[in-house]
Amino acid sequence: MSRQDKTRATVDIFGQQYSIVGSESTSHIRLVASIVDEKMREISTKNPSLDINKLAVLTAVNAVHEYIKLKEDYERLEQKLYGKEE
């Protein structure tokens, strides 16, 4: 990927500004950041005593958990659609 293919966006996550560089569109980067911000705020509301580092790790754990569940659902649906191929 060349330097021209990269997109840079400044986003706000949990009151902190981050400059994120990636290959996706600015709108995609902003969407991802807003979902992370929303999840951090949700967890912080339920656990107000968490420091920022623990909050970030817990948010990452939740995100990966959701990803794994969606991946499992996708694979299950794929097996139903295409039959059990091994």
UniProtKB/TrEMBL annotation:
Gene Ontology CC annotation, any one: cell septum
Keyword Transmembrane listed: no
Keywords from the named record: Cell cycle, Cell division, Cytoplasm, Septation
InterPro entries given in the database record: Bac_CellDiv_Activator, Cell_div_ZapA-like, Cell_div_ZapA-like_sf
Location relative to the cell: Cytoplasm
Keyword Hydrolase: no
GO BP of this protein: division septum assembly; FtsZ-dependent cytokinesis; septin ring assembly
Pfam families to which the protein is assigned, alphabetical: ZapA (PF05164)
Assembly description: Homodimer. Interacts with FtsZ.
NCBIfam families: PRK14126.1
Function: Activator of cell division through the inhibition of FtsZ GTPase activity, therefore promoting FtsZ assembly into bundles of protofilaments necessary for the formation of the division Z ring. It is recruited early at mid-cell but it is not essential for cell division.
Name of the protein: Cell division protein ZapA
Species for this entry: Priestia aryabhattai
